[in-house]
Structure formats: C-alpha cells, structure tokens
Design brief:
Elements lengths: L16 H4 L1 H12 L2 H18 L3 H24 L12 E6 L6 E10 L10 H17 L1 H4 L1 E8 L11 E7 L2 H8 L2 H13 L7 E10 L8 E4 L9 E5 L2 E5 L3 E2 L7 H4 L10 H4 L9 H6 L1
Antiparallel strand pairs: 1-6, 1-9, 2-4, 2-5, 3-4, 7-8
Length: about 290
C-alpha cells in the first residue's frame, strides 16, 4: 500500500517543538507555580493598588475588569459564530494521521521537579532548565549526526498536588546507539557533573528522572485524530530525494491498514477483529479486506 504524506518535503528543518516557544514554556511553568488562590490574591492586590493610587477609584476598580471580560466574551462569540477563525484550530490536521512504524525509534523521557515551596524560583531549577535547553540546541545543530528526530516539553498532571507539576521533556532518536552516543557527549556529561557536584549539597530539593525506550521496527505505533503535529508526528528526518537533501515529516494519512492498530505495526489481523469499528469507517479508510466483507 502506498502511503500518502501529509506534508511535502521541507528544504530546511522545521524547528523542534521544544525550541519553538521558549517564552511560552516559561509562562506555563509560571502559571503552574502558583495556586488559583494565589493568582486571585495577586489580582486583588493590583486592583487595590489601582483603587488607592489612581483618581476616580470606583472607575479604576470596575472599568478594567468589565472591559476585559467584555472583550473576551465578544471575541469568543465571534469565534463561536464562525465570523473569525479559531486560533486553537490552526495547524490541526483533519482526519487521521500516523507515522508508519517501518523503522526503529528510541525515546527518552526526562523530567525534573522542585520539591520545594519556592517551585521554579528555588535554587538550581533554572540551571536544570538551561542544561536541558543546551542539550536540545546541541542536537539540533547537527540532527543527522546525532540521530536526533525531535523533542517536545510537557507538564505532568498526575494530581498529587495542585501546583509544581513535573517539567518533562520527550526526545526522539533514530536508534538506541545514537542515544548512548549523546549521553556520553559533552553536553550531557557537563549537566551530570554539575548535578553530582551540587545536587546533594546545595540542591537537595531538585529531583531528576529519566526513562528510555528502544522500539524496533514494527514495535510501536501512533495515531492522531484531528490533532496538530506533536510527539513523533512533529519529528523530521533528513533524506535524499533526486539528489537533494530535504527534511521529511513521518506523518501519512491513516487509511487502509493504517486505520487499525495492528496494521500500523505491520502485524496481520483477522477480518472479524474490527467488525464494529469498520462500520464507522468510510470505504476510503478501510483495509481492502474490510471493504470486500462490507
């Protein structure tokens, strides 16, 4: 079955997710660092100062909040009525997309958390973030050499506390060997040495972890339904096409055998395994055997 790529090739490598919006990542961390109660108190303090320092205190107290809420309601109404585009729908891929599992992939999940009420402002937390950013930038400077496919950052929501979530980074490599080569490289070595020298003494509140996974060919799969490119779907790889080096996204249309989990993993499956699921698919989405059966 011929795959149908979602994207054409790129002449230059798209910026990895982890490096696209550094300011936005910090704002997510900042927002998560304080509880809703604390943010409300910050707002009350600003309102109080405005009332105290500005003329016409009643207007200063009510007008900004009223105008801002009116703006937000007006804006969301225009979106709901389809009079302006919804910015959250930008770059969403319609239908199903999937990265075929015809090659091996290795991933490492790195995370840090501040076991301190100071959160991201606790000593050492910024340095951990700086080392991670340096690690990603080094790989992105020569991704083919490092076997670096892409990365993204996340905040956990495991529910054990209202604030101070774990800050996580998920990094994808071409294979396990490339991961080990980078781990023993200068960027990661410098970070480990810094933490080992200071972690037990000055930064005992800084927690670190990682988990690594090496999946062989046809040993993994992924599916994205009406989703923006993310995770493996946001990675790219350098390939040669007609004598030119270009960057390719792994995403293809999730149709035919790729509509099914086993099909995405290159595994055989029976025609009766997905009877109910087949009823929800169009003929262009079903595997050939399911079409014949229908």
């Amino acid at each position: 079955m011929a795959f149908e790529p979602i994207f054409n090739s790129f002449s230059t490598r798209p910026t990895p997710q982890a490096l696209r919006h550094p300011t936005g990542s910090f704002l997510h961390l900042l927002r998560d660092n304080f509880s809703i109660t604390t943010w409300l108190l910050f707002g009350a303090l600003l309102q109080g100062l405005a009332c105290l320092l500005l003329p016409y205190p009643n207007i200063a107290l009510i007008a900004p909040v009223t105008l801002f809420l009116f703006y937000k309601l007006f804006y969301i109404t225009l979106i709901a009525l389809a009079l302006i585009p919804d910015p959250l729908a930008k770059n969403v891929i319609p239908g199903r997309s999937t990265p075929p599992s015809g090659q091996s992939v290795t991933a490492i999940l790195l995370a840090t958390r501040a076991n301190s009420s100071l959160g991201i402002f606790s000593p050492g937390f910024k340095e951990v973030g700086d080392y991670f950013a340096s690690f990603i930038r080094d790989m992105n400077s020569d991704p083919t050499r490092y076997g670096y496919l892409g990365s993204n950052t996340l905040l956990s929501a495991n529910g054990d506390q209202a604030t101070g979530a774990e800050s996580m980074g998920l990094v994808y490599f071409k294979n396990e060997q490339k991961l080990h080569e980078l781990v023993h490289g200068p960027s990661h070595t410098a970070a480990v040495e810094w933490y080992m020298r200071n972690g037990g003494r000055d930064f005992a509140h800084i927690g670190l972890m990682h988990e690594a996974f090496a999946a062989p060919r046809n040993g993994w799969e992924g599916i994205y339904l009406k989703f923006k490119p993310t995770g493996l779907g946001a990675t790219t790889k350098e390939v040669e096409v007609e004598g030119k080096k270009v960057w390719m996204s792994p995403l293809v249309k999730g149709k035919g055998r790729l509509s099914y989990s086993k099909g995405r993993m290159g595994r055989p499956f029976g025609t009766d395994e997905w009877t109910d699921y087949d009823k929800l698919l169009g003929d262009d989405e079903k595997a050939p055997s399911a079409i014949e059966k229908a």
